[in-house]
Amino acid sequence: MARDTAVTLECRDLTKTFTSTDPPTQVIKGVDLSIRTGEFVVVMGASGSGKSTLLYNVSGMDRATSGEVRLGGQDLTALSDEEMSRVRLTRMGFVFQQAYFLNNLSVRDNILLPALKAVPRRERESAVARVDALMERFGIAHVGRHGITQVSGGQLQRASICRALAGEPTILFADEPTGALNSGMTTEVMDALTDVHREGTTVVMVTHDPACAARADRVVYLRDGALVDSRELGAWSHEEATPREDDLLAWLRTLGF
User: Per-residue pLDDT tens for 141-159?
Assistant: First the structure.
């Protein structure tokens, strides 16, 4: 799929300082970043470089200390907490390392809950149909009535992707979505995210795994809270996976990864 030249998400001179430490700790240092519509961008860096903090700040899960974040031209930093919550519910999707599902609900009901909250009552029937279609598409419809402890880690992460897409988000954020999975389950989840991206969803993902990062259109590298370099990778294919990963790893090593 051809990538749009429009910008979905951008941040300018973004900083985050934690004042609970003495002295205060600046974790994000003047980051400028633009994410094009339909682009798959991965954020990498050594442990403690600020990757997840950056993701939380550009998605409005946490408030930046200074700077500006815009989603589709809307200034997120100017929104109230309630307004920001609504944006996250209706325009963003999230996949984390842990699923954060409710133990007392089935897999399907965990996916349905935020989808139903995101739409008016008159649209709930359509939301249910969309959830069922997503579960079928990602191969978990047969475990929909299972409890969350009765499915595999890979199935649970595919359920997380369904939950993230159920509200038809403008952008999907993923924070180490394969960090707790074995290699087979990692491939399952990355195949699902690759399919989501190919169908036009903008994806921003944090990972420490070069094999996962090689799926992206572009990798940006964070060091000590500052964006120090980026690398365009182009479209991903299974046939070119190994040389692409090798090339990315060689570049990462020049940055001290």
Answer: 999 999 999 999 999 999 9
Which helix (H) or strand (E) is 126 found in, with range?
Answer: helix 124-137
Per-residue pLDDT band for 22 (boundaries 50, 70, 90) equals: confident
Of residues 190, 143, 136, 188, the one with CA closest to residue 162:
136
Q: Which of 8, 40, 7, 38 is nearest to 219 (CA)?
A: 40
Which amino acid is it at 156?
Answer: L
- Is pLDDT of 4 > 60? no
Q: What are the tokens at 72?
A: 């589709």
Q: How far is CA 54 from the centre of its chain?
A: 12
- Closest Cα partner for 209 from 52, 94, 26, 43? 43
Alpha-carbon distances, residue 92 vs 48, 82, 108 (angstroms): 25, 15, 20
- Tell me the mean pLDDT in the region 171-175: 97
What are the sequence ranges of the domains in the chain? Answer: 7-254
CA distance 89 to 155: 23
Residue 246, φ and ψ in degrees, nearest 5? -60, -40
Tokens at residue 43, please? 């954020």
Please say whether the structural domain 7-254 has been given the CATH code 3.40.50.300: yes
Dist. CA 227–CA 31, nearest whole Å: 6
At residue 32, what is the residue type?
D
Q: What percent of the chain has pLDDT over 70?
A: 98
